[in-house]
């Protein structure tokens, strides 16, 4: 591909290998060069001594997510988005059974968890929109109005034709969606092994 050619965006959040649902979570650690993301939506904040959340996966299977990181809420800036209705993304996590019999994930490394201030449905909608924009060759056009664009969002690198258009889009919802767009682009470029 020639330098400067358009980036292809074709991420499939239904890909059972890259984004396993609760019925297909791998039981073994990833092989070298292999990884996956488990997408969970927070249902309830059940934190007591340490941060923990009742969540459900994209097919509705319930999972507890408990943080055993050393400084749980300061390790990662985006953990402030750990609130009901938002998405938690766990990298290459494997489920375990907790002492109370519930099934879930014990997160020990803060770099393996990311919270996004959007719901699972919103994440799917943003992903579908990016796929459509890519198919239409619009990824390099203004994210708000599809005119030729030079400016870039500092967060997700989305393009904008002008500061005014970028501001309008930010207030129309990109403020909330920017982190999700950034994460989706990273996943789109990932080789899942
Ligand atoms: Zn524009
Ligand atoms: Zn952005």
Automatic annotation (TrEMBL):
Residues 142-178 form the MYND-type domain. Keywords: Metal-binding, Zinc, Zinc-finger. It comes from Pterulicium gracile. The keyword Transmembrane does not apply. The keyword Transcription does not apply. PROSITE patterns: ZF_MYND_2 (PS50865). InterPro entries: Znf_MYND (IPR002893). GO terms for molecular function: zinc ion binding. This is MYND-type domain-containing protein. Pfam families: zf-MYND.
């Amino acid at each position: 591909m020639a330098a400067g050619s358009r980036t292809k965006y074709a991420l499939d959040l239904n890909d059972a290998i890259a984004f396993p649902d609760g019925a297909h979570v791998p039981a073994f650690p990833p092989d070298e060069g292999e990884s996956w993301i488990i997408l969970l939506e927070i249902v309830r904040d059940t934190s007591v001594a340490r941060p923990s959340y009742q969540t459900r996966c994209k097919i509705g299977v319930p999972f507890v997510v408990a943080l055993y990181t050393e400084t749980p809420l300061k390790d990662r800036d985006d953990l402030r988005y750990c609130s009901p209705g938002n998405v938690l993304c766990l990298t290459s996590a494997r489920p375990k059974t907790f002492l109370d019999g519930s099934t879930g994930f014990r997160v020990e490394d803060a770099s393996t968890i990311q919270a996004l201030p959007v719901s699972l449905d919103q994440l799917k909608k943003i992903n579908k929109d990016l796929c459509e924009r890519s198919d239409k060759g619009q990824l390099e056009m203004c994210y708000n109005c599809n005119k030729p664009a030079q400016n870039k969002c500092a967060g997700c690198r989305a393009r904008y034709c002008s500061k005014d258009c970028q501001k309008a889009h930010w207030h129309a919802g990109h403020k909330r969606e920017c982190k999700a767009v950034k994460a989706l682009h990273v996943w789109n470029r990932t080789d899942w092994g």
